[in-house]
Specification:
five-stranded parallel beta sheet; 5 strands; 14 helices; alpha/beta; 9% strand
Length: 300
């Protein structure tokens, strides 16, 4: 089937860069910077729908489900990237936020663009990870029409889980399939059709919103501190100490000792200090508070 690219918003030519090949480096990046400045305002009208997606994500994880991103090319890589950053930032299992890219993990490093044309491949990928009705599937496609994403969303609907679609075109095909559509046209790219530019930036901004607000909603923050950060290296050990110090006002030596007593958990250490309680009592308080430190320290 022949695709008419001229009908896809992300393939339109940018009138401001018709002489891109004659611009100096400074002129090119000045124009790119001007175009990038428009992205946030393009997303703003869609915040209510993004918020709905976040509520579904919180519900999914609270019930033992997962957030599953699906995409091809740049969109797929952005989903994989956001998923990969959740475990170290929020202390969740790698199985909680999953990124699927057309062509498999190898496509993250080396483009396998042909794999995006298969709807059946998406279904197989979801079957392989055991998609169930507790999950939410979020399809990512700048063009709004990627067959791999369409196939994944269609199968997810059959399974009965929540679905959402994020694109950079008007009235996207993936948005027609999903429960919630976030179609954010950001205008023609500086380099025609290169959706790793404004389209990719818009998608990354939206994914930042989804994963961050979801994890905050699940109790992964106290004030604006990432209290479930994993201490996998010396920098992160130092960050954990800083977090406990900021939250409680104790000295570094006390912060480190309490973190060690709390078996490496900043969240538990903060609760122990602010509620003046034992490790065991802190665990009980946090369980009753569903992991939210603010509620745990107020628990009677």
């Amino acid at each position: 089937m022949t695709i008419n690219l001229q009908t896809i918003a992300t393939e339109h030519r940018n009138e401001n860069t018709m002489n891109l090949d004659q611009m100096s480096s400074l002129e090119i990046i000045t124009e790119m910077n001007r175009e990038d400045a428009l992205i946030a305002s393009s997303i703003q009208p869609h915040l209510p729908n993004i918020s709905k997606i976040i509520e579904y994500c919180i519900e999914a994880i609270s019930k033992g489900g997962r957030i599953i991103y699906m995409g091809a090319g740049t969109s797929g890589r952005l989903g994989v990237l956001d998923a990969a950053e959740c475990p170290p930032t929020f202390g969740v299992s790698p199985d909680v936020v999953v990124g699927l890219i057309a062509g498999g993990e190898g496509a993250f490093i080396k483009a396998r663009e042909g794999s995006e044309d298969s709807t059946e491949l998406a279904k197989q990928d979801l079957i392989q990870i055991g998609l169930n009705e507790r999950d939410i599937v979020i399809g990512l496609a700048a063009s709004g029409r990627t067959p791999y994403v369409l196939g994944g969303l269609s199968y997810a609907q059959e399974v009965g889980c929540h679905t959402a679609a994020i694109s950079n075109t008007y009235h996207s095909k993936i948005g027609e399939v999903a429960e919630i559509a976030v179609d954010v046209p950001v205008g023609a790219e500086v380099l025609t059709g290169s959706t790793r530019l404004k389209s990719g930036t818009a998608e990354k901004m939206i994914l930042n919103m989804i994963s961050t607000a979801t994890m905050v909603g699940l109790g992964k923050a106290y004030q604006n501190l990432m209290v479930d950060v994993m201490q996998t290296n010396e920098k992160l050990r130092n960050r954990a100490e800083n977090i406990v110090m900021e939250a409680t006002g104790v000295e570094r030596s006390v912060a480190r000792a309490t973190i060690d007593t709390a078996k490496g958990s900043c969240k538990v250490a903060i609760t122990m200090i602010l509620a003046n309680c034992s490790y065991e009592d802190a665990l009980i308080r946090l369980e009753k508070a569903c992991g939210h430190v603010r509620e745990a320290i107020m628990e009677k």
